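Handoff note, outgoing to incoming analyst
You'll be picking up this chain. Sequence as last confirmed:
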Amino acid sequence: MQDYLALSKVIEDTYDAVLDSARWTGVLAKITDFVDGQAGGLLSKDSVSKSGNAYHHFGVDPHYLALYAETYWRFDPMGALPFWDVGQIASIPDLVPYDEFREGRFFREWVEPQGWIDAANTVLEKSVTSCAYLSIIRGKAHGMVDDEMRQRMALITPHVRRAVLIGRVIDLNQVQAASFADALDGISAGLFLVDANAHIIHANEAGHAILLMDDFLRMIDGRLVASDLEVDQALSESFSSARNGDDALGVKGIAVPLTDRDGKPYTAHVLTLTSGDRRGAGRTSTAVAALFVRKAALVIPSPPEVIAKSYRLTPTELRVLLSIVDVGGIPEVARALGISENTVRTHVDNLFEKTGATRQAELVKLVAGFSSPYTSNAS
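Most recent structure output, in case you need it:
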């Protein structure tokens, strides 16, 4: 029962962070405690700027955060995380050989001094250029990531993902729940506040524009109705469940796909208004959920993911390839990854054989070609 209450509180606070991003530090602290970790963060990797950012974090020394941003993001094995499906839980040994990880600069100079040994990581969102993920770190006292931690992370992750996606739609630093509807009237996404029976309590300007299209969403007798029967049923079930709080909404329907008559994709997200500080968010007490609707972003595998699949590279081969681009020649890569130069040469030889390249400069050009939207794989 204690675990259930703790989980319910974490979920409630996670969705409250949609209204106030400053709450994420506290949310991460509770998630870390629930999964028996030591520190945590919401982070992103960008393949264009080749940078790593920690948007929100808990339990991490600011000094080491600065070191990470300046230097150590280059050696972080999280570069392999975009190859994993959204929602999967990956520990460090899942991403790279652990012995190599322990010998590398990232572990010796950044991870070990903080007393950490492993982390449970999960992709929340990824696109052609970036990957957003949740990372909960474990120290020596907690041991390596185990099945219990994975199971607890799996309970939390879908809710964190939904909250992050809705937060991106809102794109506000802080919204007071008491003026929720008014504050969101100016956003570009369509917003509908609905009761448990899908009756529209309030719609913002963009929401009214969607209804005027009389396309994938309509208002019939005051109810919000989707043209697609399966989508309509999914939304109706979400609205009905929302009256019983975050737990009742569950982990399904994080992003409900919609398509207009021209085939253009849209995405809908449901946020309950019956838990936490969201209780007063509706203009009347009958509003149980907020539905956000916007055009769907094009999701394309990241360049490293495409490279790995195109040439059937192992995670270590890909890591060496990207290190050649970011760090330099074989001696530099060996020092950065904590492996011998002979091992790096072996991986480079495998890269030459699989890609058809004959020089390291050609490997750099190959990666650059995949990173450019104007360059085909054959060029």
